[in-house]
Amino acid sequence: MTDQPTFQSPDESSPAIKSEAEYALEKEARLPMTGWQQEVDQGLEFGLEAAASIRDRSIPTFSRGELPHYAGITTFMKAPYLEDVRKVGNYDVAIVGVPHDSGTTYRPGTRFGPQGIRRISALYTPYNFELGVDLREQITMCDVGDIFTIPANNEKSFDQISKGIAHVFSSGAFPIILGGDHSIGFPTVRGVCRHLGDKKVGIIHFDRHVDTQETDLDERMHTCPWFHATNMANAPAKNLVQLGIGGWQVPRPGVKVCRERATNILTVTDITEMGLDAAVDFAVERATDGTDCVYISFDIDCIDAGFVPGTGWPEPGGLLPREALYLLGKIVERVNVCGLEIVEVSPRRPMTLAISPR
Ligand SMILES: [Mn+2]
């Protein structure tokens, strides 16, 4: 993505102007097909060769692997289900579900987020046109299933989540976490911090809400993760970046904490007026200042409620999906990401789900 500039301004002295699409076509030609061939071979071995009338002999009798997209067992993007989590370190990336919504202060349902995201992820291929990447060819990925959360007890659930994320992180596999409500942001970061020693982590937080108050309804709810995360020495508040904040659902106790701890907030208007690239610079500079890695917490409600009605606290006025995807894509190119979570997906509406696996 960074090897070539795209959308160069017209200049008669340099006739070789290329669009993003032209670069994408070239990048695809450089991608191998090895992983695809392995999947086909294994499909034929495990799933038996197809009936005689099937002309495409790469098709097995029993669906194995990516195709058809409506078939099969719904792990995330049909990655192999890793039953023995002790072996998670054999993979580059591990998908971890956290079906916890007891931290919700309004609409429950995000306990079904991991299932919902997995289900809709079957719609996606591992290849992305503009990025010129094919996950099947370039990384190994597994789905370790879900953390066993305790529905009536946030604190016990937090302990389970921190232990599970610490296990994945320390194995060397990159954790991609499917929430769950945003209360899980504290125990996920705590899990990463357990293996950071004296290293520091910056947090980049996409959200309409600040999520920085100490307690809400007398407990550590989904309005509270960053108060507690930034109490840890490994996660300084000065490296907390909060993108897309605004509207009529931001609790004043949280705003007071942001002011006292000097977190780094951009509203949606800030982002659109300074421009997406300047917002990326802001986020990267603040999150990496004195830190060793960056944790990304993506609340689906940072996107306008018209696109993502299936969430715990839908709020109008958020980012467009293309803006959020652009910001996320540019940020992860430039920082050492140590974990990524997607939270507050409450799978009631298809569009919320369609955006969440991205
Ligand atoms: Mn939120």
Label this structure with key terms.
about 350 residues, two-stranded antiparallel sheet, alpha/beta, 10 strands, eight-stranded parallel sheet, 12 helices, binds manganese (II) ion
Description:
- The protein is of the alpha/beta class.
- 34% of the residues lie in helices and 15% in strands.
- The chain has 12 helices and 10 strands.
- The protein has an 8-stranded parallel beta sheet, with helices on both faces. Strands 2-3 form a two-stranded antiparallel ribbon.
- The longest helix is centred in the middle third of the chain and has 18 residues, at 154-171.
- It is globular, with a radius of gyration of 21 Å.
- The model has no long low-confidence stretch (mean pLDDT 94).
- The structure holds manganese (II) ion.
- Manganese (II) ion (MN) binds next to loops.
Summarize the structure.
This protein has 358 residues and is an alpha/beta fold. It has helices at residues 20-30, 34-47, 113-121, 135-138, 154-171, 185-193, 225-229, 252-261, 268-274, 276-288, 321-334, 350-355; strands at residues 93-98, 127-128, 133-134, 141-146, 174-179, 201-206, 240-245, 264-267, 293-299, 337-343. A hairpin with a 4-residue loop joins strand 2 and strand 3.
